[in-house]
Structures are given as C-alpha cells and as structure tokens.
User: Fold this.
Amino acid sequence: MEGSASVPRLLLMARIFGILFFLLWGAVGYFLSASEAFGREAAFAWVAGGAFGFVLQRSRFCFFCNLRDFLEHRIAAGALALLLAFAVGLVGYHVVTGAWIVDPSAGHLPPKAHISPVGWNLLAGGFLFGLGMAVSGSCISAHLYRLGEGAVVCVFALLGLIPGFVLGFLAWNPIYLAWVSGRRAVWLPAHGGFALALVAQLLVLGLAAFLVWKSSRPGEPAESSSPRSLRDLGRAVFVNRWPAWVGGLAVGLISVAMILRLEPLGVTSEFFRLSRHLGDAFGLLPERLEGLDVIRGCSQRQAEGFLSRGVLFVLALVLLSLAAALISGDFSPRWPRAGELVGALGGGVLLGVGAMWSFGCTVGTLLSGIHASALSGWVFLPALLGGLLVGLPIRRKLVP
Amino acid sequence: MKKILIPLLGLAAIVNVQGETSSQKSPLVSTEWVAEKASDPKVRIIEVSVEPGVYEQGHIPGAVNVRWHTDLVDNPRRDIISKEQFEALASRLGITPDTTVVLYGDNNNWFAAWGAWVFKLYGHDDVRLVDGGRKKWELEKRPFETTTPAVKPSKYVVTNERKDLRARLPEVVSIAEGRENAALLDIRSPDEYSGKVIAPPGVQELAVRAGHVPGAVNVPWKTAVNDADGTFKNPEELKKIYAEKGVDGSKPVVVYCRIGERSAHTWFVLNELLGYNARQYDGSWTEYGNAVGVPIDNPSGTVWTGK
Assistant:
C-alpha cells in the first residue's frame, strides 16, 4: 500500500517545487526589470534563458541526441527539427537585419551577429567539438538543460570545459597567427544581396531535410489527436515530451528574439570568461590572447560584473529546465557509471578546446552563425559532423 | 471662461516663442524638440553611439546611424575622415548646407559630441546635440524604433573647412614649452592625469609614458554632465567649474584625452556652449605620450623602461 502511494506523493512534491521555481523565475524577472542596477536588458536575458531552458527540456532539443538518433537509428524527427530551427532563425534574422542594414553590400555587418573569420580553426574546433559531444554525451546547451533533469554526469562535463578552454587559450596565439589573422568574416548577404542569400540557404536546408527524410526509417505513426480537455492540454504542454519540431520552431524564434533585443543566442560566453579568469589567476595564460577580443562570437563579450547577462541567461536556463523536469516527472537524479564519468570529463575538455577555437558552441557558432548567414556557421557544421562520426564508436565503448 | 483663456493663450505664445528662439540659437535641443522634428525635412537626426548595435536595437524615430569607428575615422591613417570622405558621408545622409544636423548617442553623448566636432570642422554651421542623449530619451520612456530610414542622397560640398578647431602636435608642444599663450585642458581621469596609470582600467596601454602635457590642468569630462539624466550642466555652473582651474575663456584653450574622442565632449562645452576659443587635440595622449623629445609632467614617475 505504502509503496504504491509513495511514488505519486513524490511526484506531487516535485510538482509543487516545480511550480515554485516557475514563480521564482517570474519574480526574479520582475525584480530585474524594476531594478536600476540591472534593468530591462538583464530582465530580458533572464526571461529568454528561462524560455530556452523550458523549450530544451520539454522537447529534448539536443544537437547530439538528435543527430545520433538519425546516424545510428535512422530516426529523422530530431534531425529535421534541427534543420527547422536553422530555417526559422534564418528567415527571422533576414527580417531583422534587413531592417537594420539598408544595403548589405555597403560593407557593414549586422551589429553583434556571430559572423567570425573563416579559417582552419573552425574546422579543427568543429571537429573537436563534435568528438567531445559524442564522448561526453551532449553538447554544452544540452548538458545545461540535463543538469536541470538531475543528470549528475553533466556537472563533470561542464567542469571539464574549464581545463578545455584553458588548453584552447594556450594554443590560441599560434593558431591566430597561422589561421585567423587576415581572414575575412564572410556575411553571405554581402555577396549577392539578402534575397539570394536567403533563397540559397533555404534551398540547402530544404535539400538536407529531403535527404534526411528519404534515408530515414519509417517512424512510429504520429499521434495526431489534438487535446480534448484542459487536462489533456496540460499534459501535452507540461508532461508529455513535445514533438521534436515544436522544439525546433521555438528555438528558432527565441534566437530571433535575442538578436532583436539583446545579443545572439549563445551559452558559452560565461565559460569563456570564467576559464580566462581562472587561467589568468593561476598564471597559465599568455599575457595577451591575440585578436580574440575583436572577433565576433561568444568569445567576445567583455566582463560586466558577477551577475552579467550571460550568467543570468544560463542560470535561468537551468532553473526552468529543472522546473519543467520536476513538473513533468523527468527529474531523476542519477549517479553516473565509471565509463560515463570518464567520457563526461574527457569529452568536456574536448568541448572546451573546440568551443574556444571556434568562438562558441553548437548554439553560439552553429545556430546563431547560420541564422546570421555567416559562412563561419556553415563551415563549422561539416567539421562537427565529422567529429561526431569519429566519436560515436568511442561512446559505444565507454557506455555500452 | 474668456478671462482664463486669454492669459493662457498669452502664456502659450510666450512659451512657443522661447522654444523657437532657443532652438534656433542654442547648440542644444531638448528631447521634446527632437520628438516633434523627426519628420522635418530640414532636420537630420543622427545617432553616434560608442557601443555598436544599440542603434539597431532601438533608436529615436527617424534617426540615421553613423558608426564612429568606421564612418568618421580613417583608421589606417589614424585620422578623421578626409574632406572627400566627409562629403560622401553627408551626401549619403541627405544633408545639405542648411540642414539642421542633430546628433545624439549613448554614454552622455560622448561620440555624438565627437561627431559634432567633425561636422563643425568641415564647416557645417547648424550642428546641435540632443541634451541628455539616449540616456534622457530612455529615462523619459520615449519610444524607440528599429527600422533604418531610407534617405534620399544629396550632393554635399565642403566649402569652408574650419582647421582652427583642431590642434596638432607641434602647436601643443609650443604651448607646453611656453612659446604660445594658450591653456591646456586634460579631461582624462585624475589617475591618468597624474600618471599613476597609462590607460583607464580594461583599456590597453598604448603610450610608453604616463602623465600629462606640462601646464595642462585636469577637469574630467564627466564633470560637465548631470549624472541623473546625462544633460549638460547649466552654463553658469560650467563656467565656474573651468574657471576654478584657470580656463575662463580669456585665452585660447586646447583640450585632449587619451585617443582624442572623449575630449570632443569638453570641446563642445567650451566652444559651443560657453563660446570660448577651444581647439581639440585629437592626437591626444597616445600621440603626445609616445612622441620623441617632448616634455611631459609625470608626478608619479611611471615611464616605460623595459624589463
């Protein structure tokens, strides 16, 4: 008797906490917008971070899992959701930057957009990042939302990032001189105009979607029944896993809201800052990291106090992923096995090096890059896939 | 009813006349004035902000964007834009010689003032700043817009270059050595002035020596603004602030800072608001502090000597 009643009671408790965290999120948002020290930009970072965490958790929007599902099991839904996220953001960015930039050929890049120089570092960084994703079990944004689901292993992956970034910094100056210095940041609309850039990129995404769909296994028949009652609707939003494409759509829209109001979507800027700070504090880093502060990407943001917008974004991401997981019943703290632990730490280091060399992760460089029609985002993608393919067998050995 | 209405109308007329005359003569315009004049074809509102991206994410309706670090400077030459480049810029912005050019920006109009100096330097007469700039506009909760207006280009020709508004290194050295009678005003922070630091925190040290030009007095640029809303202090207060350091308009004054941009703010105060004969030395400390064979005053003794 007791045993059967204790599970729902636990879930009930979890849901109460989940709702409390939701309320806390709203309250902090209000506090930030009213506070003179923070203001509406900080409030927006907090709210957007929460929305991003909620969407990631509800739809399990994870670059690694979605790609692995396709590569290993020929399940198309996740990969198609990624392509949809690219397409939605690409169109939205065109709407926004089209309002900002009168003539794209005039030589001005849309401010803040993650358009970085195109050099070999992007291929090397993308490859290491893909490898790190496979070995550690997720990319950085997914480690953050899975933290909210109680996955202890993600703590180790995120800890591994720091030495990874420091290693990346140590090799940075020669990389900059050999591969980055003098390379141009290529913004596709500057070569042929907005319309051509949009159509060409959408065609590439459409072709990729077609190929993915063509080579996928016939999946489960989709549940198409729309919720009949309020209870069903609540379950659809807060309990059941969202269809992958809903996640892709929402991620694309959040990215557009971010460039319009704040800065490109990204989660690694604070890891850049923290690792650079720690590396400096221990005297590990060269006195100057050549050129790094003027290259666009997550690497660029400058220090702005302890509770910077980047910190607020990441904290809200984890908080709302936790709230969503508590309410849905996805919250299940689990201690990792030895293989997972090794993979998380080692993979975390690889993720750190890769993100450092490519000025961001799958969110800041890939997603925000492709959204911005940056050639750098497109160059990062195949390298990432290459790393992933090499890493998958390693993952299978580590976590059978 | 009539009894109340007539004095009210009279009052309105006075306010209106004052508004008109002050907007015609003062180098400053209010946020209300800008809000009203946004679509006036004789007025061109220009944002020049320090931080890239703030214009795009929301600006005063009708304003166009000028990027100080690409549109107003010739980076490889380390110079302001040439006459031809300025003509191209003004033409692109649809400005004619009788356009009222109204500038504003973030950081209490730092770089908007620098833009005003460049416009004045190339002889454009009617140049104003929005008092309080972005800060005041935002504090008053006025609306921003995000679209960039399309402007019909003009054909602008510079006819009257005002080289007398700019000071070059030889002139500054001759003032420092007492061969020319003019005041020197250093608007950097007290620690940069005294030579305790070469550059403000977080900024790369680009000079090999610290300190200031001999004879220069120190009034940090921010002293001229009201912290609450970013507006300039009133002329009487401003006169007093600079007079206390011996800059009272009785002789020409040269202002400088580190890279020559912040000092444009003080140049605007002295030249435009107070009517003093002020020149801006845009080479500033990064030129002077590195120049060979020129004297400096360095109370802190910080000079680069190698290891």
